[in-house]
Amino acid sequence: MKNVIITGGASGIGLATAKKLSVNHHVIIADLKDIDDNFISKNFNNTENISFFKCDISKREDIINLKQYVLDNFKQLDYLVCDAGIMPLPCEIDTITDENIDRTIDVNLKGTFKCLNILGNLIKETSGSGSIVTVSSVDGVIGEPYGVIYSTTKAGIISLTKSFARYFKGDIRVNSVAPGLIDTPLTDSTGEDPSWTTDYSIIKRVGKPEEIADSIAFLLSDQASYITGQVLVVDGGFTLK
Fold first, then answer.
1. Which long-range contacts (CB under 8 A, 24 or more apart) does 98-106 make?
2. Which of 43, 128, 134, 222 could bond 176 through an S-S bridge, CB–CB 3.0 to 4.6 Å?
3. pLDDT, tens digit, for every residue of 70-100?
4. Considering only CA atoms, which of 53, 1, 42 is closest in space to residue 19?
C-alpha cells in the first residue's frame, strides 16, 4: 500500500481527496485542525488507512517534523497533495491589510514551496518515483480583484508546479488542479454569492469537493503517467465565458 500526504486534509477538497484515496492508499492528513478518532470514524470507512499529523505548512520545522514522522512510521512517501490554503478577510485590493498579505503568502505560496521541496525530495529519496498534485484556483488563472493576494499566490502555485516538474525531471510528476467555485468551508467563509460565478459558468452550479478529488486522484495515478507540469482547470466552464 502506498503512502500519501494531504495537506489541508481535514476539510473541503482535502477531506474529499483523503476519503477517496484512503480506499487503496494509506493517507497521512496534515492539517492545523486537530482531528480525533471520532472524526476519523465518522468520515472514513477504512479507518486503519488514516493517520493524522498536526502541521502548519508556513513553518519549516513543522514540515521537517512531518517528514521525520513519515520516515519513522512508514519508511517511505509515494504521493503528495498540496491542498492547504487560506484567504484571510478582508482580501480586496482596497481593503486587504499587510497582516493578511503576509499570512496568505506565508501559507499559500511559501508553505506550498516548502512542502514541494522537503516532501517532494522525501518521495525521491524513499520511493524513487511518485506523483504530486498542487491545488491552485481559477483565480490564479484569471486574476481576481476581490481576492488579490489569494489570486497571486494561486498563480504562484501554478509556476511552482511547472518549476518542480522540471526540477524532478519526470521521476516525480508534478501537476496542478485549478478549481472553480466549490462548496467548501473556505468558500463559505468569503460570503460570496454563488450566482456571481455560476451565472457565468457553462455548467450553472457550484462544484462539489468530490469532483475535485476525482481530478486529483487521476493526476496522481498511473493513468496520468505521461502528464507533468500541467494545470487541469475544473470550473464548470467559468473561464471560457
1. 100/149, 101/149, 103/58, 104/149, 104/150, 104/153, 105/149, 105/152, 105/153, 106/58
2. 134
3. 999 999 999 999 999 999 999 999 999 999 9
4. 42
Residues 6+ apart with CB under 8 A from 168: 120, 124, 174
Architecture (CATH level 2) of domain 3-240:
3-Layer(aba) Sandwich (3.40)
Q: For residues 145 and 31, give the distance between their C-alpha atoms in angstroms, rounded to a whole number.
A: 28
Q: What are phi and psi of 225, to 5 degrees?
A: -65, -15
Neighbours of 45 (CB within 10 A): 9
Are the C-beta atoms of residues 111 and 157 closer than 8 Å to each other?
no
How do beta strands 130-135 and 79-82 pair? Answer: parallel
Confidence of residue 200 (pLDDT cuts 50, 70, 90): confident
Instruction: Based on the residue annotation, tell me whether 167 is a catalytic residue of this protein.
Output: no
| Active-site residue (options: 69, 79, 146, 150) | 150
First to last CA, the chain: 42
Every domain of the chain and the residues it spans: 3-240
Percentage of residues in the chain having pLDDT higher than 90: 88
Grid coordinates given for 69 = 514522522
Separation of CA 124 from chain center:
20
